[in-house]
Amino acid sequence: MDRTIRGNGCTMKWILTFNEAQKILKAKEGPLTLSLDLGLSTATIEKSKTNVKIGDQTIPLKAFTKVKETFCYAVEDHQLKKVALFSEDTNLYYKLLPTSDWPTITLSSTPMHRHTHFSPAQDTKLKIKEIAPIKGKVLDTCCGLGYTAILAVKYADDVYTFEVDKNVLLVASYNPYSQELWANKKIHLTEGKDSTEAILDFSDSFFDRIIHDPPTFVRAPQLYHLDFYKQLFRVLKKGGLLYHYAPAPGKTKDARGREFHKQIIKGLKDAGFMGVEYHQESSGVVGRKP
Q: In DSSP terms, which residues pair with 211 in a beta bridge?
């Protein structure tokens, strides 16, 4: 039986993890209060000898014994469904991975946020800090779960972000911490369009700040190309700041064995950015347009 997500849209779902499942299994019969949105709020459910009643959904109690620690689960169709899917189009397996705070998304086991030494929340905040003070219009080149856009819009007038992969946005639609992507009118999300294509629609000096947090080079080499860096330079205002996530030194190298962050620094300098340097704490390269 298929027990992975198939729906779409951004309607809020009930989500639980191994921790909530264990609380349910250990609780006595009757009402129980716990979180169904990964800690954002609490709700009351009803446990009986054989079932658990969550809103209008009735889930067999035995389903909670099968919940695994490395998945988030959506309450749908009177089942617990893994927030995960495999796409034949991309040949990737997508899943929402619970962490100590905000979940991350993995693409065939590759996480899109640091989540061991830093939590996804800390990781995103460190990146946002690199372009402080945030003001005006912000470009977030790669949306993902939307954390960068959601934090940046707290200070910016508008945030423009792009996500080429519909499967990523499907997973995001189940994530309680991604809902502002669709709810906040100051976030302008373009779906199904690559940043290298979308950036051509913007006039020169349109953005005050840019955060470029691309997937790995293997998945999106065009986002590390000098031509794209020149476009980032073009749309950034004079004096504007750019942050470019880079793999940790010593861990990721290019085909010639060169440390990858050094190639990013060279590319940004060649595109015209000044003051380009690697910052270890945020694991990224910062620069400015003179």
A: 140, 243
Rg of the chain in Å (alpha carbons): 21
- Do 285 and 268 contact (CB within 8 A), yes or no? yes
H or E segment to which residue 275 belongs: strand 274-279
Q: What is the pLDDT of residues 198-253, one digit of tens each?
A: 999 999 999 999 999 998 888 888 999 999 999 999 999 999 999 999 976 445 55
Rounded Cα distance between 21 and 17, Å, is 6
Amino acid present at 165: D
Relative orientation angle of helices 260-271 and 226-235, to the nearest 10 degrees = 50
Provide long-range contacts, Cβ within 8 A and 24+ apart, for 23-29: 24/52, 24/61, 24/64, 25/61, 25/64, 25/65
**Cα 64 from Cα 58, distance rounded (Å):** 12
Tens of pLDDT, residue by residue over 208-221, are 999 999 988 888 88
Q: Which two tokens stand for residue 13?
A: 């779902």
Q: In this structure, which CATH number among 3.40.50.300, 3.40.50.1820, 3.40.50.150, 3.30.1370.60 belongs to the domain 113-288?
A: 3.40.50.150
pTM for the whole structure: 0.91
Q: Which residues contact 272 (CB under 8 A, 6 or more apart)?
A: 230, 233, 289, 290
Tell me the per-residue pLDDT of 68-93, one tens digit each, with 9 for 90 and over.
999 999 999 999 999 999 999 999 99
More confident call, 86 vs 261: 86
Annotated domain spans of the chain:
15-82, 113-288
